[in-house]
Amino acid sequence: MQLVVARIGRAHGIKGEVTVEVRTDEPELRLGPGAVLLTDPASTGPLTIETGRVHSGRLLLRFEGVRDRNAAEALRNTLLIAEVDPEELPEEEDEYYDHQLMDLDVVTKDGLAVGRITEISHLPSQDLFIVERPDGSEVMIPFVESIVTEIDLTEQRAVIDPPPGLIDDRAEIASARDAAEESATDDSAGPAGDEA
């Protein structure tokens, strides 16, 4: 099975290093020296990692055969793909690979069906489940412990406890109602200072 583990960013310096946007929770395992990675586009690879280091909070990699800034810049936006045994599980108990979460049914803690996970978006601050609802619309669910309360791989479902407004429009309705009540209160009070 193939997993996207990083995306190559801009060149760094003049000796062929590149910045990478890490898309794995195990960069030391997937992006260590000697790792051979497939690429998208395929014509760019495979690439073998020669060295890696962290600089100003970003991972920098150098690949075998890439010796200057021009060659490094030519790799920009290439996805790095690792071959992973489908039976392999993450080291931590509460971690999951994307393929384990895809197609899980999403339900609320009250049992209300929300939809099915069709994509996982890895953002710098958090991961998001992209969930397709039965009507074909999509909703984004932050993959954080306070919202996603349980992942049950046996039952193939993710249980969520969404705050108001995340999967429905309760927050919008409440704010619209409050605004209407405020407007009615202001109208009934009349203009200030009009004493006859």
Automatic annotation (TrEMBL):
Residues 4-83 form the RimM N-terminal domain. Residues 160-196 are annotated as: Disordered. The keyword Chaperone applies. Residues 99-166 form the Ribosome maturation factor RimM PRC barrel domain. SUPFAM superfamilies: PRC-barrel domain, Translation proteins. Pfam families: PRC_RimM (PF24986), RimM (PF01782). It is found in: Cytoplasm. Gene3D superfamilies: PRC-barrel domain (2.30.30.240), RimM (2.40.30.60). It comes from the Bacteria. Keywords: Chaperone, Cytoplasm, Ribosome biogenesis, rRNA processing. Its main location: cytoplasm. An accessory protein needed during the final step in the assembly of 30S ribosomal subunit, possibly for assembly of the head region. Essential for efficient processing of 16S rRNA. May be needed both before and after RbfA during the maturation of 16S rRNA. It has affinity for free ribosomal 30S subunits but not for 70S ribosomes. HAMAP family: Ribosome_mat_RimM. The PRC barrel domain binds ribosomal protein uS19. Binds ribosomal protein uS19. Belongs to the RimM family. This is Ribosome maturation factor RimM. The gene is rimM.
